[in-house]
Specification:
The protein contains ten helices and 17 strands. By secondary structure, it is an alpha+beta fold. It folds into two domains: 237 residues, Zn peptidases (Aminopeptidase, 3-Layer(aba) Sandwich), CATH 3.40.630; 94 residues, Elongation Factor Tu (Ef-tu), domain 3 (Beta Barrel), CATH 2.40.30.40. It has an eight-stranded mixed β-sheet, sandwiched between helices. Strands 4-5-8-7-6-9 form a six-stranded antiparallel β-barrel. Helix 1 runs antiparallel to helix 5 and helix 5 crosses helix 10.
Length: 367
């Protein structure tokens, strides 16, 4: 956090963050998380929009002709039940970019119509894996050999628990605070983004800032399967400008090549992206805002797409000036995703201050 700024996160906002993160919101099944988010946002907005697939939008100044979006995505990676064996073991397929390497020995919730059912990703003991291997090599986790054990010992017993093909499965790992102001949780990617844009709306309201444009605070669904929610809501809103927030890799951990991935680290502030989908004028405005307000920040470059909802907004509606502000995160797509509290606050401040520097007369034309 900038030395100029005192902490902006309140006891109430941190309580919401914990509740929001602990609530499952898997891709395609974001409904309950979106309800929580909208309920928190409502005191700070004038109107709401919810589209057919569940992307949720809080609107400030809904009658304004000039429209600015700040956006995050609401969904988390998960698994689908794909097959139940006669012995009652449950095999899965990915829902989004779930990592089979971390699955063995993890606890999960299988979500059914009657509620969640506890289960574990079973894995053979180290004593038996090599001895039982047909080719003499130790097996590694693959999507086709990891399995869930819910205690049932037949397909019938599984079905009696309400589990069927298509049930969605999430890891059972909640929010915790670590030493030195680090937060860990599954699904910080990217519900921390939804939290941050909601906090921007709170600051605007509490500081009595009157924006000269319509602000659309967007929590989009289905990013993890191809930016689908952003594609739909971008066409509906037709914004003039879009600022997207997502997570990016802290590249200072082991087994990451900085020559390829660049150097981004937790605690050094939000990362501002250079890339073809990123609008140069909007990005430069964000960088100048960070410099003016003395907000710590980092720079990141991408060769082609950003891999975020930025791409969906940038190429929608004949082109929308769009930019990406990312928060550094360790251990993406695991159950111990990790972020620094200072980065959360500095990202909120950067989005907030950038909005104060945008007007309907801001020139986003290249020529």
């Amino acid at each position: 956090m900038s030395k100029k700024q005192k902490s902006i996160l309140t006891k109430e906002s941190l309580a919401f963050l914990k509740t929001y993160l602990n609530n499952p919101s898997p891709t395609g099944f974001e409904k309950e998380g979106q309800k929580l988010w909208l309920e928190y946002l409502k005191p700070y907005i004038d109107d709401t929009i919810v589209d057919s697939y569940g992307s949720a939008v809080g609107v400030i100044n809904p009658d304004a002709a000039f429209k600015v979006v700040i956006e995050a995505h609401a969904d988390e990676i998960s698994w689908f039940v794909n097959y139940v064996s006669p012995e009652g073991l449950i095999y899965v397929i990915r829902n989004g970019g779930s990592d089979q390497a971390i699955a063995p020995s993890m606890r999960v919730n299988i979500h059914t119509a009657a509620g969640s059912v506890k289960a574990v990703f079973g894995w053979p003991a180290i004593h038996t894996r090599l001895r039982s291997s047909a080719d003499g090599k130790e097996p590694h986790p693959k999507v086709d050999n990891i399995f869930l054990d819910c205690g049932a010992r037949s397909r019938k017993e599984v079905e009696e628990l309400g589990i069927h093909v298509g049930c969605v499965v999430t890891f059972d790992d909640g929010f915790e605070e670590l030493n030195y102001d680090y937060f860990i949780c599954r699904a910080l990617d990217n519900r921390i983004g939804g939290f941050m844009i909601a906090e921007v709306a709170r600051l605007l309201k509490e500081n009595k800032q009157r924006l000269p444009f319509g602000l659309y605070i967007v929590n989009a669904v289905q990013e993890e399967v191809g930016l689908r929610g952003a594609e739909m809501i971008a066409k509906r809103i037709k914004p003039n400008v879009a600022i997207i927030t997502d997570v990016t890799h802290d590249t200072t951990t082991p087994m990451i090549n900085k020559n390829i991935e660049g150097e981004i680290k937790c605690g050094a502030g939000p990362s501002i992206t250079y890339g073809p989908a990123v609008h140069n004028i909007l990005r430069d405005l964000i960088i100048k805002t960070a410099q003016k307000e003395k907000i710590p920040h980092q720079l990141h470059a991408v060769s082609r797409s950003t891999g975020t909802d930025t791409d969906a907004f940038a190429y929608a509606n004949d082109g929308t000036p769009s930019a990406l502000i990312s928060i550094p995160l360790r251990y993406m797509h695991t159950t111990v995703e990790m972020i620094k509290k200072d980065d959360v606050e500095n990202t909120i401040q950067l989005i907030y201050q950038t909005l104060l520097n945008i007007t309907p007369k801001t020139n986003f034309q290249y020529l």
